[in-house]
Amino acid sequence: MTPFFGPPSVSVAHLSDPHLTADGRAAEPAVGLSQALSRVLALDPLPTCVVVSGDLAEHGSPEEYAALHEVIDGFPLPLLLVTGNHDHRENLLTAFGGSAHLGGSTSAHYLVEYPEVTMVILDSLVPGAPGGLLGAEQLDWLDSVLDRRPDVPALVCVHHPPVPLGIPFQDGMRLDDGAELEEVVAGHPNVARVLAGHVHRQTTTGFGGSVLTTAPSTHRQSALKRNSDDPCGFVSEPTAFLLHQQTDRGWVTHTVQVSHAENP
Known about the structure:
22% of the residues lie in helices and 23% in strands. By secondary structure, it is an alpha/beta fold. It has one domain: 4-Layer Sandwich (Purple Acid Phosphatase, chain A, domain 2). It has a 6-stranded mixed β-sheet. The chain has a 5-stranded mixed β-sheet with strand order 3-2-1-12-13, covered by helices on one side. A two-stranded antiparallel ribbon has the order 10-11. Strand 8 (203-207) and strand 9 form a beta hairpin.
């Protein structure tokens, strides 16, 4: 029998919120990220690239980015980094600027064009604030780079979710100019997914004619607290990442378990 779906022409592994530290708690988040990356390498076929959608470090210190280097150096697939509110832009650029992990860029927002997919990495970090902002200049840049290859699928990556997701505490620190981002996305039908993090949970919703999805954390998941704007706290739920895969009829997103997964 001929399968309905052909082999995937492109896929992207979407990890988030590892929160690496360099103190006495350093082992657990580093192991979580390492396990997730090992699970990526067990996928068949391997994804085109991996993106980690922010909060790479807990405090954004040089020592934490050195720890991140230790985890990801030598990883055999392209791995792209996104800034989150726990990150420190200048320290991140000092550690990774000009490297393939920032697409060869010396900026925290950048473009990587693979033959089958365009990866657009946005920088929503506002120093000292839990919420995010892109600003008019970055939104104009996004609009221009999405025009470059209108027939190639694009994934737009940002740490802060641009719309409310039904968790009041998290919704209070989302992307401030999410409506403006949605307007840009709506003008580019080739945007297959908008990828975010920040909430330490998987969520999915429509956005600008595309699909917005947030990835679980590779470290700790936040509680699903929908009836209060108090802090969510963390729960001992499984770690996982998302795999966004192109098929014959469009894009599909899979949840790939990590901490509770068995080897094939």
